Amino acid sequence: MIELKEFKFGPRKFLDVRRQELAGLRFERIRPRPLSPTLGAEIEGVDLTRPLDDTTFAEVERAFLAFKVIFFRDQALTVEQHLDFARRFGELEDHPFLPAKDGHAEVIRFAKDEEVAGVENMWHSDVSWREIPSLGSVLRAVEVPAVGGDTLWADMEAAWEGLPHADKERLEGLVAVHDFTHSFGLGMDREKRAEMQAKFPPARHPVVRTHPVTGRRSLYVNPIFTSHVEGLEREESLELLRALCRQAQVPEYQCRFRWQPDSVALWDNRCTQHYATSDYWPQARVMERVTVIGDRPY
Ligand code: SIN
Fold first, then answer.
1. Total structural domains within the chain
2. Which atom of ligand 1 is nearest to the CA of 289?
3. What are the per-10-residue average pLDDT scores of the chain (298 residues)?
4. 101 within domain boundaries
5. pLDDT at position 13, please?
6. What stretch of H or E contains 54?
7. How many other CB atoms sit within 10 Å of the CB of residue 96?
8. Does some domain include residue 9?
9. Looking at residue 6, what is its pLDDT?
10. Which of 68, 99, 184, 241 is most solvent-facing, going by the fewest CB within 10 Å?
11. What is the pLDDT at residue 187?
């Protein structure tokens, strides 16, 4: 069983070092306003409705890697502008399970109202069930409730750093299996599920992954898509996953964003998880997400 005695004190050193590193960053074109010590910043000085010149884009990318999730206000993006911005980070994916915006396979539309309640209120990293999961996602708010519907992000590097040394040693080399069956698969009949399982078989990813750009390590298991840890008995695997998934719930590792229409978030799925609060029913909340393909976790 994982020992969490030391954990309650949190990774104070890590938070302090990262806070100082982030405070030391200098930008010419953009103005980041941090939302928490290690995670999240609102970015001022950028107009995403116009193509970003290379210098400004390089600063946005640097802020994205540093703050892990960045936010832009008042960006009345067309679908094409939304797609163009996301494409600067890589190739885009079509989601095989979530509804797409009419005529735009790469744009997921989360449209919630009295008839359809929000179900994104579980911590996750997007499409971790894919063999090649996501680099990042760009989410735009189309319609938001007057109050509620905030999204939270968790810094999974801080979550890793917060674990006691002995637990970290134990996690080295462990592989977890990620599978869509217990989430998107639930509403499918047996035949459809089998067809989709053939297309998207369970994916094996390290429990602790290394960021391909920053080299930092983070916990990479989540309660929606991670089914088990390979090589462990069922109970041991469940207990370990429960303990690790709880790390995303620690407030010291989180930031929370309050949406307005035309707010845009860009987050790094390789080192964060997110949770959309479902506290606004029966009001409407409409969001559009474009997802950038990443690379194989290691
Ligand atoms: C998502 O899980 O990608 C959606 C997040 C949100 O609607 O805030």
1. 1
2. 3
3. 54 84 96 96 97 97 98 98 98 96 96 94 98 98 97 97 92 97 93 96 98 98 98 97 95 96 98 97 97 98
4. yes
5. 80
6. helix 54-67
7. 12
8. no
9. 47
10. 99
11. 87
Residue among 213, 223, 236 nearest 294 (CA): 213
Give the whole-angstrom CA distance, residue 268 versus residue 270: 5
Candidates 125, 158, 123; CA nearest to 38 is: 158
Element (H, E) at 228: strand 226-229
Q: Which atom number of ligand 1 is nearest to the Cα of residue 276?
A: 8
Q: Whose CA is nearest to atom 8 of ligand 1?
A: 276
Whether residue 8 lies inside any domain: the answer is no
4 belongs to a structural domain: no
Q: What's the domain range around 70?
A: 14-293
Cα–ligand 1 centroid distance for 68 (angstroms)? 15
Say if ligand 1 is within 6 A of residue 110 CB: yes
Structure tokens, 243: 């303990």
Q: What is the CATH number of the domain that holds 177?
A: 3.60.130.10
Q: Which two tokens stand for residue 25?
A: 């960053």
